[in-house]
Amino acid sequence: MRFAATILLAAATLLAVPADAWAASVVIDAGHGGSNPGAIGVNGLEEKEVNLDVAYALRDELDKMGYETLMTRSDDRDMSLEERVQFTVQHKADLFVSVHSNDYGDPNTRGTMVLYYDDHYPQAKYPASAAMKMLTPQSLDLAQKVLNAVTATANTKNNGLMQSAAYVIRSGEVPSILVETAFLSNKQDAELLAKPAVRQKIAEGIARGVAAFMPLAEKKSEDNNSPFADIAGHWAEASIRPLLDSGIMNGVSAARFAPDQPLTRAQLIALLDRLFPLAAPTAVQGASGQAAGQGTAGQGKAGQRVPSDLVSGHWAYPVLMKALAAGRIDGYADGTLRPDQPVTRGETAALFYRSLAANGNMKTNATATVAAFDDVPTTLWSAGAIYALRQLGLAEGVTTTSFGPSQMMTRAEIAVLIERYLQSNSPKSR
Ligand SMILES: [Zn+2]
Averaged over 159-173, what is the pLDDT? Predict the structure, then answer.
């Protein structure tokens, strides 16, 4: 019973705070804690304590600047790496910053380092999430800005960036870094880390780096009615802006559109439902009349199973159940739906075309000749949809000869596809 109550409470919390209501949010992760002290300094300082103190100071700095902040731990407790990443995913945060202090065999090594996951240096044993692979440029940019700002503000030695497949920075869904503030194994650095004033300076530096990477939006003006600083100058800006104006697309948070972030299955289905609306299914009935909790399957319309990984508190639960009932999306053979998994370009084409065809509102252009994409053989499961969309002038390749069906679809790319569809489907007169 307690278990069920906890799940319901968690679901209610997610429902009560829609992503759009949030400002730009940063997860601050104080490394180690509880029975895991991390490094022990040459002066006896415990890493977990330094990390938590810097994390608190960083929270205060970011709060002052107007960011939303979330701490993975706010006291001295054990926390698994998985929990830290899950926390970030569940809160739909924009950035993840882990705070650590370093330890190295050579006592002369000192300075600040910033770690990030770089897909140019993958580690087979420690695979990164699909999202994190794609976020390499963003994580690198964030890491560089934070390193520059910390070393300038706290006057620590610049020990450079480091490509790393550490769990917390390779597993999430948002730009992520791990800041190694200074070396507890170095006498001078350990002395610095013992000083509250230095911890404060380090926190200020991290906050400045975050602000340089993710500036808060300017005040709204007549020319700029979008709160998203990250679409200005983006190659897809012209497609994204009208979709924001018409409410078809919105940001991943109040401050970020995240154009280069992968599109998730849930996001795609929600978009398709706005373009090709489905009627709401008849009331969802659970076996005992209550909504399904995590891991338990209830019954949707006419025996529609609720996928085992779709919690009723998921932001897209209603639209996903509707799309399942209408056959617009399929679950996986193992009973899951994987709503927050990125979709490939091939899968996007297939799902888009399925909705388009079901809508029966296609202006076909049967006279057009379609050149084949080198990487889309007719045997590919999504080939039919890809070529149909291309024939309609809606889909284009990543180059003139390749479609990239197994590449992740980005939010910018779906914006272009949708904008083309709306243009092709609107009366030609202006
Ligand atoms: Zn550490």
Answer: 96
